[in-house]
Every structure is written in C-alpha cells, then in structure tokens.
What we know:
The structure holds 2 protein chains of 2 kinds. Helix content of chain A is 35%, strand content 19%. Chain A has helices spanning 5-19, 43-47, 59-71, 90-95, 100-103, 133-137, 150-162, 213-222, 240-250, 265-277, 301-304, 308-320; strands at residues 2-3, 23-27, 52-54, 75-79, 113-118, 143-145, 167-172, 181-182, 196-199, 204-208, 227-231, 234-236, 253-260, 286-290. In chain A, strand 2 (23-27), helix 2 (43-47) and strand 3 (52-54) form a beta-alpha-beta unit. Chain B is of the alpha/beta class. Chain B has a 6-stranded parallel sheet with strand order 2-1-3-4-8-7, with helices on both faces. In chain B, strands 5-6 form a two-stranded antiparallel sheet. The N and C termini of chain B lie far apart (57 Å). At the A-B interface, helix 3, helix 4 and helix 5 of A face helix 5, helix 6, helix 7 and helix 14 of B.
Amino acid sequence: MQATIVEAVNDALHTEMAADDDVVVFGEDVAASGGVFRATDELLEEFGGDRVVDTPLSEIAIVGAATGLAMYGYRPVAEIQFSGFLPPAFDQLVTNASRVRWRTRGALTAPMVVRMPYGAGVRALEHHSESMEGAYAHIPGLKVVAPSTPHDTKGLLLASIRDPDPVLFMEPKRIYRSFREEVPEEDYEVPLGEATVRREGSDVTVVSWGSMMPPTLEAADEADADVEVVDLRTISPMDAETVVESVKKTGRAVVVHEGPRSHGVGGDIVARINDEALMYLEAPVERVTGFDTPVPLLSMEDYYFPHPPRILDAIEDAMSV
Amino acid sequence: MSENVPTEHPANAAVSAGDPRFLSQDDLSVDTHQIVAPDGTYDAADVPDLDAEQFQDLYRWMLTDRVFSRRMVSIQRRGELGTFGSTRGQEASIIGSAYTLQPDDWLYVGRAWTPMFMRGVPMKDMILFWRGIEEGQQSFAEHNCQIAISIGSHLPLVAGLAWGMDLSGDDAIATAYLGDGATSTGAAHEAINFAGALGVPALFYCQNNQYAISLSADQQTAANTLAQKALAYGMDAIRVDGQDVLAVYDAVTEARERVRNGEPVFVESVTYRMDAHTTSDDPTRYRSDEEVVAWEAVDPLERYREFLESEGLWADIDHDGIVEEIEAEFDAALEEANAFAERGIEEIFAHVYAELPPELQRQFEEFSDLLERRPEMYDHIEQRPKG
C-alpha cells in the first residue's frame, strides 16, 4: 500500500495490537478522537476501550504508568501529544523507565514505547516544535528512534514495541503527510540500532535523520559533489560503525540536525568520527543545526531549522578544503 | 462516552443568593480512626477479628522492625553500610498496614523495610541493598516489592502496576507507601488522579511521620490533613492513628477491600519518625527534645503491649526470646552479606539494556584494559563497605 509516515504509524499500531494482546495504547485524545494527528485512528473501534485509553492530561502519570504497566508484563505504547510536553515526564524516563532493568538486575523490565511527534515547521504554538533528541539520548537505558520514511516508520515502530527496553519514538511531524511510499501490508521489522545509507556517494558523507532527511537529500541532489547520505534512524544506541565506514570512504563529513547545536547529537557524532576515522579526514567535520535558542514562534520558525541551502553551504565548505 | 449536559448534579442542588460562600477545608471534618487509646483503653467490639496467633504475630513483626532498625544504625556507625533510614517509631503504621497485604499484591515503599521480610525477602538482601549492591533490589522484585528513593516518583508506577492487575483480572492490589513530603510532589498528584480516573486497584498509604528530612508537616502544606487531599481527586480517604497497630490494620483491611473493587483509596497514617531521616542527618537541628519525648509517650509497641496484656495474650509472648531470635537472624544475615562475592566491573555495564550496545561494549573493554595496564588505578578506587 502507499502510505504517509503518520499512516504508517497507524498501520504499525493496528498490526501489533492485532498480533499481541498485551499491547495497550493510551494518551491524551488517542481513543475517541483518534489522536490529534489521527495516528491512533480506528484503534478504539477495533480493539476496544480496555486497550485504547484516553487518559487525563498527565504526562508524568502517562509515562510513569506505562513503566508500571510494562513492569507488570504489558507492552504499553503511550502517546505524548507533542514533544514539548515530554519534559514534565523526563523525571519518569530518567528515574524509572530507563533504570528498571538495571535497578533489579533484570528481574523486572520496562518494555514500553513513548511515541511523540517532534520538530518545527507546522506553525504550532510554543512547546510544540522541539527536537530534543540529544537530551533523551543522554539517558542510559533508554533507546531513541527517529524514522524519516513511511517504510522505516512501520518497521521501526514494530521493532520498538517488541524491543525488550524502553524506546522513545520520535515522529517527524513536519513530514507526517508530505509524501507517500510503498509500505508492505505484512509484518516486518527495521532493526533498532542500525543506520542506513539513504544515498550512495564518494565525495562527502552527510549524516542526518528524521525531519532533516528531505532537506538533506535535496541538498545532496543539488550539490556539485557525489554525496553519500547516512540516515541514523536510531539516535541511541547509535550505529557509529556505518557513519565511520562511510567517512573512511569519502574523507569528508557533515552532520545535520534540527535540535540546538551545543551539547547535541552532532557533537557526539563528530567525536566518534575523530575516534575512529580522524586520519581519513580531508576536512574538519561540519555541523548544520538549529540554534542554541528556543524554537522561535511561528512567525520566524522557518529561520530556525536547516534548509537545503544551509546544508549545501556546509557541503561546499567541507569540499573546499 | 459521557454527555456534558447542563444539569445539576444532585449533590450540588443547593443554590445560594447574596454573598458568595467560601468552601473551606474547615467544612470538612476528618476523624482519626483509633481502636486502642493512648491510655491503653479500648472497646472490645472494635477489635479486629484476629486469632491469638495473629495478634502475637503483629507484635513479633513490630519488634523485628525495631530490632532491625537498631542493628542497621549500629552497623552503619561502624562503617559497614552506606547510609540507612531507621523506621523506629513507625512500627504500628508499617506492620499494621503491611499485614493486610497478600503475596500477589505489589508493595512499593518509601520507608518500610520489614514488610519485605513479611513477603519472604531475606534480611541479607536488605543489607546488600543498603550497601549499594543492586542484587538486593533484584530479590525485592522477585517478591513483588521495591524501594523508591526519589520521593513520590514511584506513585505513577504503582498506578501502572494496578492498571496491569485490572487488565489481567488479577485479584491483587498495588500499594504505594509514601511520606508527608511526597504529597507535595507533582508525580503524587498525577498518579493519584490517574488511578482514580482509571479506577484501578491502587492503594496510596501515606505515613505522615511529621518530617521530610528537616521540614515539618505543618510547613509542608497549608492543608489541615493529608487525607483530605484525596477528595479533590474523587478518592475516598481514611485518617488513622499510626501509633495504634489495630486501628491501622482495621483501616487498611477495609481500604484494601475497596481497592480490590477498583476504587483507589488514600490512607493517612499519623505517626512519628523517632530517629533521624537517615544516618546522615542530625534531627536536633530542627526538632525539640520535648517533642520527641511527647511522641515517646505514645510508643506503638508499648500501646500494643497494654492491649495484649488486657487480652491475656502477653503471658505467651517471650519478649526477650523474640529479640534474641531476631538478633540471631540479623547476625546470620550479616554474615551472609559479608560473604557476598566481590563483583567484577562487568556488573556496571550489565542490565542497562537487554543486549550490550557496541558503544557500551567498547567502554567496558577500554576500562578493563586500563585496569590491567595500570594497576595503580586501584589506589584510587575505595573499597566498598564489606559484602
């Protein structure tokens, strides 16, 4: 079938709820209304009110209760309506969800998924546009996933729900409906912790993920160089090997992300390239990122996140050395 | 789906004219449930229906709590524990409540260790826990219990565990023990509201032990009682004299019945932490000797002993013999804990994820290699408390 990213989310939830009775979907407005982005559409009708639950407006309780439910043997898939509302529940991710396995030496685990749309560019209100994957990837014991295509979205979400560890599943809402592609109707997984080479090339490696993938590919097409694009797909644990192998081949690298630059995921990728491929580098690694500011409100948000010309500029800088 | 039609709820039928009337917490009268009065008197009709062995069992567990606390503080002073929070003074509150719980019930405590022994956790594992050895918590988990360190953060988990019980149709409840301080945290309020809205079998058992480290209960909140907070969430509450083990047992037995039926209940047990918050804390800085003496006068073991004497049950209790048995159990547990094998550094990296990610594997190998190449590293690594 041809599907968008948000339709792929919905299809994955239908698939896994039908396959596994222990999967429970809940969050604010997910049941009767089918979610503000319709990601949970028709789940209530198909699976009933015990397994598809509208919760009070309570991010701490949603993430904490998901942890308790997972400890009791269920596979909760909780939705946080927008990424800007997750910070209240950061405590539950750091204090409990990510540590249950470690704390009990494996006697208890928290196999759960917290899904949320993230990123700027949809003209939303304050606290609706953040890309804070760097903050969440810093939590040991938590996995952080950010798909960029409908095909990967379904396969990664199925893998996330089946994963034995807690997963934060960050959905790139700017491209929720921007394109369709063939998504298999059947069950399949895209493994967590594996990056993919989205476009092959020999001159420069551009590493990107999630909502940054379309502008990255556009810049790659326009560049006066043979650009290889690596889609990280899982932010944590990171597949540094695919990145490093690509940089060893091309000798140049650019990292693109939407979140703030300082202390971000990009810095970590540069460090890993330094660790493993410094002597292969022909030029310093470039970073193209959001600024160390809050995401501007809607009138200026388009200035904030990287567009193809900024990425192109960085590619040219990397090529000019 | 509910219909939001503009009709009066029967309970809100009255309409007032003139000046608006304030709804005040003083409109709410909150009684404190008590069976045995501080002077030892009681009405036989109010006494819970327990047999002689159970009455004696309650005493034995209260004594276990007291002896265990004393021994743990003592070995902490000898440098054999990291830090410890004594439960002296709260024995009736802790044992009376926990005695109502069943093995399949979940118990997530802030300050209450002995209930874990009641569930079958070996004392050795509690010593390991306070020595900072995670295997203690593994053992707790295997007996459906955990200790929460971050105040209030466990309440949402308990709501989730209760939700799981509800979905599974299990005949069990999930219980969060919390303190007066926890009732000020956002997590507690979200969890209590969430459990109430979902109608899951969660019991919120609040031991108001009068202090959150140095902050007294009256500085903690402007509310007259903690029990009344539950009403804002549509949850029924009981306030109980936490120095009266029979009143606590009675209240929580009834609460557990309601909770089993999917009606979460909040219990405020009014008690007192006789010792410091933990062994790292000096309570003389924030409370008076007079206050401590006043609470010593309502010592829960003494009050219960008077009851047992009145019932003719005391003669069968060999107080000194029980203390000796508990001491011996503690000695054996300590010996076992001391014999716990030294662990390797792989333990630091284990159990973060089900499968070790490549970067963690790399960090482990790098560190192992460093330890081998630079044995002087061990000069900088302090030895942990024994065991």
